[in-house]
Every structure is written in structure tokens, then in C-alpha cells.
Amino acid sequence: METVQAVPKRNQYGQSSSSLPGALPDQITTTVHHRHRALRSPEITPFSGDPAYADLSKVPVRTASEVPYRLQMFKIRMVYASDVRKEDCEVADERIKPVVSEANEKALPDLLSDPPQVEDVLQKPEAELCPLWIKKFDRELMRTLSFSEHETFDHPVACLLVVSSMDKEPVNKFVDLFNTNQLPSLLNEGIMDPQILKHYLVLHDQQEGPQDIAVNILAEMRSTLGLNDCKLLCINSSTEAGGSNADNSWLPYKALGLNNHDGSCFISVDDLNEIKDFMQDFVSNHIIPYMEQKIRVLNQQVATTRKGFRNQIKNLWWRKRDDVPEAPNGPMYTFTSIESQIRVLGDFAFMLRDYELALSNYRLLATDYKLDKAWKRFAGVQEMSGLCYFILDQSRKDAEYCMENAFSTYLRIGSSGQRNATRCGLWWAEMLKTRGQYREASNVYFRVSNEEPSLHSAVLLEQAACCYLLANPPMLRKYGFHLILAGNSYYVSDQKQHAVRVYRNALFVYKQNPWSYINNHVHFNVGRWYGVLGILDVAIKHLLEVIACSHQSLTTQNMFLNDFFHYVQSMGKKFDVYKLQLPVFNMSSLKVIYEDHRTYASDADVGVSESTWQELEEELIPSSSIVRTNWLDTQPMRKYKDSCICVAGEAVKLNVELKNPLQIPVAVSGISLICQLSTTLDALSSDVSGLDLDGGEDKVNTKPSISMFETDGDKFTLSKLDIVLGGGESKRVQLDVTPKVEGILKLVGIRWTLSESVVGYQYFEFDAQKKIKKGKRGPRRSLNNSLVVIKGLPKLTGSIDRMPTKAVAGDLKLLTLNLRNHSEYAVKGIKMKLSSPRFLIPGDSSDIGLEFPDCLKSHMQSESSVISSKTLKDNFKSLLFAFPQDIEIQTGAALSWPIWFHAATPGNVSLYISLYYEMGSSSDIKYRTLRMHFNLEVLPSLDVSFSISTSSSRLQEYIVRMDVMNKTPSESFVLHQLSCVGGKWAVSALPLCSSINSVETVSENQAVSYFFKIKDCEADSCKEAESGSCTSDMALCPGSSTDLFDIARSPLADFHYQERYRQGKVAKGPCSLLDFVLISKAVGNSSKPTPDFELLSHHTCHCSSLSQNPIWWLMEGPRTINHDFSKSYCEVNLQLVIHNSEAHKILVRVVTFDVMPEKSQTVHPHDSTSAQGGWYDVSLENDVKTISSSKSTHQEKQSSKSISPYVWCSLSCAQIELQPDSCARVPLKVCIFAPGTYNFSNYELQWKVHPSEGRHVDENEKLLSGGGLGHPFYVTVLQSV
Fold it and tell me: Locate the TPPC8 C-terminal Ig-like domain: which residues (predicted)?
């Protein structure tokens, strides 16, 4: 015997079109034989719920109105009486969990496939985006609210009582089954109406006996229980219990959930059809008419008691109470209360699809429940009102308002309304999705997820993510974010497969975006969960994406790296990883260094632009090679002239920068190149190793195997490097490959081992289409991965001993250039080209073995080192030096050659040297070059300047002031020697000024000035030249007069002419007068040793006088005269000597004045003629003029009232013509009327230059005309006794 309750059920849209599975057998009934299981509730359900077997389109339905309509689809749910009860929440959740767990196990095979891409996901329809099991989960989640007290959808409508024909006294069994003591508690407690439709069924198994027994029982039932409420159903009429025929008879019904269990059922197709007809009859002729009658009766009662203005006022007055207690469920309502009856009316009308009738009753109930503060029942009718509005499509705004009101009210109740809020949210989201409002639906799913446990929340969040993807336009970021939230909830609920699945689906969202933190979170968790599932290779693949996370904290980086190495070691083998991101190889820093006919002394020399070397080697390389575009034009390998060339036995180097992005040290071992060497030259035209090395996306995905590039020790050798990179450290490393045979060498990539467990490799991404601009970087910088290997060639290596990287200005050194031949053949024809002869000058063979600086002293110099002025002037600009022709460097031999170094000027200087040498044997290349490059920092030392003024006491004599400023912060210097370049000038101290030797040492930051005079030794008036005491060198410190350096010999003379040439380019003003060379020495003491620089030479060129007059003049005559003025006035004869220093004729006019013109007079306090007569100061110090004075002092204007003490006589004006470089004397006479000391300077010279024929005068250098006042000339006249 079984008691089955029939309940019409609404679906998730509110329509009565879905069914739920049946429940377990009743404990108080007799169990039907196992061959009767076709009539158990789960087996009847498909026949009651599928439209094909419950077609009611011909059954008219009429509710409260008189207008009938037809139902298009109607389903009922059948449950056992024992299951009509409120299920505990924890038990219900445990019943839902297998739905997710079953899908969790099925998700594992899909996790082995590649993650979905954005294009594929966007093209999927809605049905494929959300897995099917999620719909089942939603139904099971809503089923947990079955048989609620505040709604009548799950209240029984009919009761089907089934008794077997084999039972004794079957009629009494029917009475016992519906005994009130056996009814569900909800019916006995007054919550559900026990007066429901009853239907009696006799089940007869034809395998147990003839059908006549069942017919007799049916007749007895009808006479006792009623004619129309009793039915007979015969089953198991088949003669075979198994076999193919039995299985085939079940095929049409397998889609409905029916199966031939174990082949033990004897149900035939006729039996199945009979069951279908019974259910159709039961629904159409009993259940639906019963519901129609119930609706009409209830509607009449409601209309009588509640509808109408009077009833509404009465109801409001009766319910208007302030003392109604606040309770989650409000007051208790029995099934007989008017509120419960109205709710039954509304729910029955809703199930029979009279939505307008249902809505009117729900609205009526909403006011009552609100006044009674029955919030759960109020939320329930608001929920149903929203569904009615949605189905009727009357007011979208009202529908959403009702659902929002119901949802928030359920949440306000507390835990008792939480699951109802979830169901309301699910219906609300389905409403929005049906209208295409996916964005709003996702917000509802998110709100619902906050109220559910982690497992339920995960499923709801996944549905929210799918809604964001279906929005227009798709909201990918929110889609990915909600998937991550869902995955985290899945993981908390111990559903790791689901967690991995949703995380994988979010990968494409963060793949191309710079959201590094969430990208690391996704990859790390996916990799970790794959590792837990035992899929280690995929786990390592995802963890590779996070091991180079430089932005993470130290703790996080350690966690990522430890998990990565844990899973790698768990595999038990080394793991090859293409483009391993630890360490990071900066491919933009790649530089290939190889040597063809161009060789380099060091790797730093390769960084110099090719245009610099080409300009330097323009005169060095033979012209026949320059005419051709490439030396290969004359070789058999002409077709490879555009290729890069290297030499067998010489290393090809590759520089690359490595960086550790982490904050923790990383050990990297076995760093080496991946290479191939083909011995056939035709391989150059083929692709490199058959791989696409142009660096595209396909290259990254294909991951070419590294096994095809193993080291071939017979053809080339590779260097291996082991380093440890500290946290955040960057290092530039150099990797070498040395080809041993001729052929084509191909640089494919780099390989390395990380922490002895992971082998990383990366291929070079060469751009074959990129062209290198001519003169920019040249072939050294071109990242061409193919090099033509030719046979071995002779090669020189070179270096300069003691070449400084830092020096002070003026530093002079003797260095040594060392060349060594490491090849098997001799080299010859060596030439050298220097870029800056101001700093470097090749020495001579005689300089080998000399002691510096003693070799520069005058008594140490050999005659061969004397350089004539003409030779220097002709060759000082030459930068090419040829070694002697007889010099050859044999195999394994070395050559040392002196090089003079001079730090000419402060600043950063780059020095370039290129050596050319020819092969001593026949080879493809006839010559090679050795390129050397040095960077030099020159610091300031002594700043030397000179100021020159003409002497007023002697012709061809100058007064010179030398200013010396020590600009070093810690060094001191001794001024050793001052020299005038050339033999024309003699330098000496002033006659009455011995202070030139008073300062021996110039300390740091000290400034000193020196005064001395220079004379023209070639002048006729130079007495020192006649006596042989004229010298151009002057010692500046005591005891150094015997240790003077000869500046007329090499290398001082060479460097001086270089300085004269360079300083002449920037010299301004008139032609220079002379050049100075100041030699100083560094000072050391006990606390501070002597610096590396021992001798400094400072060259100051193109010095000129401050006065630029083309003529010199000087007054000659007696200085002291005795005369008796009592007898007559005194006559003094004078001579004015005028010298033409120009190369042109000059017309000179001499004019004397008894009284100087007013406009040219200046008052001097010490002028002897400021008064008419008397004694005046005649100190010789007045004759030494300071450099800053631009003119001589002049005579003060005499008073017009006094009489002049002397007058000029003989002539007042004279005019002469001076030939170039000649002198003339003009006789003058003056009459003195009283004794005293007189200054005869009141005269003036005026000149005009007359250029010679065919010669041009530079107006910027000399004045074409001008004038000047006379120089002071003092004469003392004494009264004779």
C-alpha cells in the first residue's frame, strides 16, 4: 500500500509546468512487490509531468470568470505522505551538495584541455555558458523551501491511495491509510487543509494471478468508496522478464526517466500506455475540476467578506491595532482563516494561470499581512505579485518593485527568511535575464550570494559572471572578477575541480592586461590546485607565470618560488621551460661581437660607432681596398658579401644583460649559447635551424625543442657561466662560442639552469627585415644570427702599459705600446693612426729604455731628437705613423714601442688608435686592423695665463706678468721652469725685483703672480745677445738652473706645436708675439706619497702685448746736467728713437707742445711737472708699469698765468717715413730756464700705415692709423757751483 500526494507545482518562472522527483515509501504502508516499482512515485512522475503524456489542450478550464480557456502545459508533482513536512536546512543542504560534487568529478577531464579564449567564449550561446548542472542546483535549492507555512503551492491538492489486489481486505486498507492519525503533521496541526480530493487505486500484478480478482475488488470499492473515485490498474502483462524485446519496449520512455531495472520488470508497452492513460484521466477529470471548484467557492467567500468598500473599511478598522507584536512570521494563521483562504485562492488561480485573479488576491493579502506585521507572509505575496506582473507583462516597474520589496523583507526577517530571499533572488534574476537585462541580473545574483554558505555562493557568483559576459557590451573585467570570487568559494567548499575550472575561464581576461596582482593570484592558485590534483605539468606551467613577480612582497615571492620548485622536484626530472622568466634576459641589450679583418683590443672598443673607425682609418687602409665596397668583392666568397664574417679559432662573443626581478637571491648555472654550425656554405640561404626566429606569437606557442641544438664539440666550443644574482641585481654577461671549422655558424638562443632543477632556454628574435643605417652602428651591432666562418688568420693583440684612465691637465708620461702575435704566421707593414696627437704621440726607436723624466733634460738629449722648426711645421698635423719597414712580428713574438702621453686639456676625452698590419702568408684577407679605444678623464691642475706690456725704458723689451692658479683640491706643485719657445726671445727677472723666486710651491687652491721681462735677442740694441748670455729658459726654483728641460726637442716640441695649432684656431685679435711653456712637478710628502704624475707641461701659445701700436719710440739723452743759470739758460739736446715693427711702411709725425692740449691731460699726483719747477720724486719704481694701466700718465695742465720753466726749440713738428722693421732718430732740443727735475713727455706721435704693393693688412690685427703721447723722460738740471 502507498499513499501518494498529488501537488501541482509552479516552475522557476511561476508557471505550473515543472515537476520534482518523488519521495521515499511511506513507513506505515505495506511495501509493494519489487515488480510493482513502476507505480512508485518516481516512476509515475514522468507520466504526470510531461506534456506528451498529460496533454490537456482539449480540457477547458474556467475559474472565477465564465470565460473558459485551455491549458497548454500542466505538470503535477507526486510525493509520499511521509515527505509532506518541512525539511531541516542542514539536511536540505546536504541533499544539494551531491549535485555539485557529481559535477565536480565530471569536470576533471575538461581541466586537461586548453583554457578557453576570449573569441570562443564570446561566441557561445547562453545555454553553453552556464553548465546544465547549475540549473538542477537552482531547482534543488528552491525545493528546500517545500511545504512552507506561509504559502500553499506545496499543500496537497489530492491524495492517491494505492492497494495491491493481493492484500487481504483491501477496502479496510483504504480506510486505514487515510486515518487522521496517519496523516502528515502539517495537516493535523491546521496548517494544511485535510479535506482534499481522494482517489483510490487497486494495483494488480498479472504475474500473481488472473485479473478477475482485481475486478471483484474494484466493484466492492466502488460500492463502498464511490463510483468515480476508484480505479483498477493492471501491470506486468509481459511474458518475458528480460531480453532485447523488453529493453526495446522501454526505449520511448527512457527520456522520461524510466528504465528496465536489472531486466526484472514484466511491464509491457501496453502497461506503460495504461499508466499514461490513468494519469491523464486523474489530472483532467479529477484534479483540475477539483481546483476549479475550489477557486469558485473561495472567490465567492472572499467577495462576500472582503471585497467591497464596506468590507474594506471594516477590515481596516478591525486590524488597526498598535499592540500587534513584532514576530518574524507574524500571527499564526490556520487553514480556516480568511487570510489562508485568500492565499489558497491566489495560488490555485496562479497554478491554473489565471494571473489577474491571482494578482488581485495577492494585493488584497499584502495590506492585511502588512498591518498584522506578518512580514514573511507579506514578502511571500509580494514575491508572487512580482511574478504575476512579469507574466502579465503589465508593468515592469511594478514587477521589479515587488521583487525588491520581497527580497529586502525576507532579509530583514533574519535567518528564517534567508533561503526565501535566495529563491526570490533566483526568480528575480530569471525575470531580468528573460528581458535581456543581464547586468541587473548579475547584481541580483551577487546580492543573493552574500546570504548563502560558501558552496551555494560559489554557484550563484558563477551565474553572475555569466550574466556579465552576456551583457551588451560584454563586461569582461566584471566577468573575470566574479569568476575569481566563485573559484575562491569553491575552494573553501572543498570543490577544487570547480575552483580550477572557473579560474581557468577567467585567465583570458587578465592575460593581456597589466593587472599584475590579480593575474599572479589566478595563475598561482590554478597551479597550486592542479598540483593538489596531481596534474603536475599543468601546475608548473601556471606557476611559471608568477615566479618572476617583481612587484610582490618578499614573503609572497618565497611562497611562489618554493611551490614551483616543490612541484618540479615532485616530477623527478629536470623540466625544460621555453622563455623561462627567471632570470629575465634583456633581449634588447643583445650585442654580438665578432672579428673579421677588423679586430679589437678589448670588448669596450666594439661599442664605438663604425663611422668613427672608418674616418680614422681613411688614410690607413690602402686606397685599392677603399674603392671596393667590401674586400669580399675580390674573393671567391663574393655571394656572401652582405653576411657577417668570423674567423675559425677566434671567439664570437655575445653580451646580454640578466636581471633578477625578485628580492631573493637566485642561482643560475650553465649559461651558454645555443648554436649550430653547418660546414656547407649553401646553408646560409636556408632558414636558421628550420625555425621561425622572427619573434612572432606562434613562436611562443610552438615551444621548439631544445634537444635539436645540443653542443657539437667537434665543430665549436661553448663557454659556460655560473652566477648568483642578488635580489633585484642586474649583470651583463658575455657568452662565447669558438668555431673550429669553416662553414655557417648560427646563433640560435641561450640556455641556462635555474637552481639545478629547471632548464630554461630562449631563442633570439631576429628581425631579418630591419636595415642598419650606414655609419650608425655598423655590422658589430647587427643582430644577424648567421656568420660565415673562414679559415684562421694571423691576429695581433695590443695594449698600452700604464695607460691612465684619470690624469691632471699637463701630465706628461712615457708609455709603452705592446703588440703580440698569437698566430702561426708573421705580420708586417705595421702602421698606426692616432685620433688625438695632442694626447698621444708615437716615440722613436731611440726612446726605448730611456729613464723618464731625466731623458728630457738638456744634457741627456741626443742630437737625433732635435727637431727642426720647419719639420715640425710641416708634419705636426700628421696623424699617421709608419713603423720601420724591417719590423716584422714573428709567431709568438712581441713588439714594444714608446708612446708619449700628454694630458692637453681638462675634460672627458676619447682616444682612438688603429693599427694596420699585413699578412705574412697567403690568405683570403690581405690585411687586418687592430682597434684600440681609451676613455680618459682629465682633471684641472694649474691654470696659467700671461699678460704682456711694452717697456717704456727700452726698445724690444716687454714686462710680463704670469698668473698661476692651482685648481686641484689636494695637490701641490713646484714651478720648475719657464721657457719661451724659439731662440728669438730671452726671459729674465726684473733688475730690482727678486721676488720671482719667493714662492716655490703652489698649494691647493692657491693663486700666485710672477713678474719678469723678455727681450728680443735679434734686435740691434740687445747687449745680452752680443755677450751670449741670452737664454729662453729660466729656472723658477733654486737649484734647478742645471736641470732645465729642453723644450726644442721631442716630445715637448711635438706637443707644443700641437697645442699651438689647436690654440691658434680659437685665438682672437692681432698676431701673436710669442709662446710660453711652464714646466712643473708634483710634490709628495711623508703623509701623502708622490702622485702618479711626476712632470707637467703647460703650453700657452699666441701671447701678445696689450698695446698694439705698430711703432715703438724711446727718448734718449742725458739724465743729469750741471749748468750755471746766472749766465744763461740751459740747452739740452735729445733724440727720439722710433722703430717700425710692422712689415709695411709707416708715415710718422712728431709734434711737441710747450703746454699739453687740455683734452689729453690727466692729473697724476706724482707727476714732476704738476708745478712749474722745483725738486720732484724720481724713483725708478715709476718706470715699472702695471699691466692693468692702459696708458702712461700725462702732464697736468699748467696755469695760464705762470711762465713755463722750459720750452721746445729747434722744431715743433717733424715727419719721417719708416721702412719695414727699421729705426729712425729725430733730433730734439729743449731750453730750460731754472734748475729742477723735468719730465719731457709733452709730445705726441701720429702714424699712418701704408701697405706694401701686393700685400694686405688685416684691420682686425693692426690699426691703420693712430697716435700716442710721449713716454715719461726725466732730466735733472743742477745749478753749478
Answer: 1117-1244
The whole-angstrom separation of Cα 1023 and Cα 955 is 12
Q: Specify whether the CB–CB gap between 85 and 73 falls below 8 A.
A: no
Residue type, 616: L
Q: Is 1271 helix (H, G, I), strand (E, B) or coil?
A: coil
Q: How far apart are CA 816 and CA 812, in angstroms?
A: 13
pTM of the shown model? 0.64
Yes or no: say if 156 and 192 are a contact pair by the CB < 8 Å rule: yes
Amino acid residing at 854: D
Q: What is the CA radius of gyration of the chain?
A: 59
Nearest alpha carbon to residue 1194 among 1212, 1175, 1167: 1167
Here the cell at position 1051 is: 716630445
Q: Give 1024-1030 contacts, CB < 8 A, sequence gap 24+.
A: 1024/986, 1024/988, 1025/986, 1030/986
Q: Which of 303, 312, 259 is nearest to 37 (CA)?
A: 259
Helix (H, G, I), strand (E, B) or coil at 808: strand
User: Are 240 and 201 within 8 A, CB to CB?
Assistant: no
At 748-795, the pLDDT tens digits run 999 999 888 889 998 887 654 444 444 444 444 446 678 888 888 888
Phi, psi of 900 (to 5 degrees): -90, 135
Which positions ≥6 away from 144 have C-beta within 8 Å? 87, 89, 92, 93, 95, 96, 419
Q: Buried b / exposed e across 396-430, counting CB within 10 Å, b at 16+? A: eebbbebbebbbebbbebeeebebbbbbbbbbbbb
Q: Work out the angle at residue 1274's Cα, subtended by the Cα atoms of residues 1272 and 1280, and round it to the nearest 5 degrees.
A: 165
Residues 522-565 pLDDT 10s? 889 988 988 888 888 888 888 888 888 888 899 998 998 999 88
Length of the chain: 1281
CA-wise closest residue to 812 among 1079, 430, 547, 413: 1079
What does the alpha-carbon distance between residue 479 and residue 464 come to, in Å, rounded to a whole number? 8
**Cα–Cα distance, 574 to 1121 (Å, whole number):** 116
- SS3 state at 771: coil
Helix (H, G, I), strand (E, B) or coil at 1141: coil
CA 136 to chain centre: 48
Strands 786-790 and 743-754 turn out to be antiparallel
The SS3 call for residue 368 is helix
Place of cell 721676488: 995
Beta strands in 594-707 (DSSP E): 598-600, 644-647, 652-659, 666-678
Where helices occur in 936-1076 by DSSP H, the ranges are 1023-1027, 1052-1066
Q: List, for residues 1227-1245, the tens digit of each pLDDT value.
A: 989 998 899 998 888 888 8
Convert the pLDDT of each residue in 476-504 to its tens digit: 899 999 999 999 999 999 888 889 888 98
Give CA–CA dist 1092/939, Å, rounded. 13
DSSP 524-549: HHHHHHHHHTT-HHHHHHHHTTTTT-
